[in-house]
Specification:
single chain; mainly beta; Jelly Rolls; 2 domains; 4-stranded antiparallel sheet
Length: 175
């Protein structure tokens, strides 16, 4: 076990950064905070058509929270600028006519590859509003890794992704 005892911390210019007295550290004119990276985006620009039998990126045009400015509505991606572990989540609703035996799933993708997905099967077709969610702990390198949301439907019809914050959203934060 090692013990380090100091009464002052200084930066490289010998400016006092902190004083230590009685086990209490007092910082001098500096606020030390960890990086705050968090976002929540929603879809409010109308229902989004999706392609049958292929992954379609979901667009999120409205930002409710964007601490760290890592979510872009331009490319619908979350690109964290701090390396670490992130909790990411999404929920979206497909609303309309589903064909018999339709399969659909939503995905959280990392760099274009599926990180996690939630699949559902509609055995008997009809008109429905179906909501799915997915979440995952994901690791990002803080520079080039990005995350987005995609949806897949395989069936005789492809209901659109429903617009509205209450129905379709994407968010996450650094843990």
């Amino acid at each position: 076990m090692s013990v380090v005892r100091v009464n002052q911390l200084q930066d490289t210019s010998t400016n006092v950064a902190a004083n230590v007295s009685g086990g209490v550290v007092t910082f001098s004119n500096r606020i030390i905070q960890p990086a705050k990276i968090a976002f929540k985006a929603g879809k409010t620009d109308g229902n989004q058509s999706i392609s049958n039998s292929s992954l379609t990126q979901v667009t999120f045009n409205s930002i409710l929270l964007n601490d760290g400015s890592c979510y872009s509505t331009g490319n619908n991606r979350f690109t964290p600028n701090v390396a670490g572990n992130y909790f990411l989540y999404t929920a979206l609703q497909l609303t309309g006519v589903f064909g018999d035996n339709a399969t659909y799933y939503i995905t959280i993708r990392k760099n274009g590859s599926v990180e996690v997905y939630n699949e559902n099967k509609v055995w008997e077709g009809g008109s429905f509003s179906l909501t799915r969610s997915a979440s995952s702990l994901c690791t990002a390198n803080g520079s080039s890794d990005y995350f987005d949301i995609a949806v897949f439907v395989n069936g005789s019809s492809t209901p659109p992704v429903r617009s509205g914050f209450a129905f379709t959203q994407f968010g996450g934060y650094l843990i």
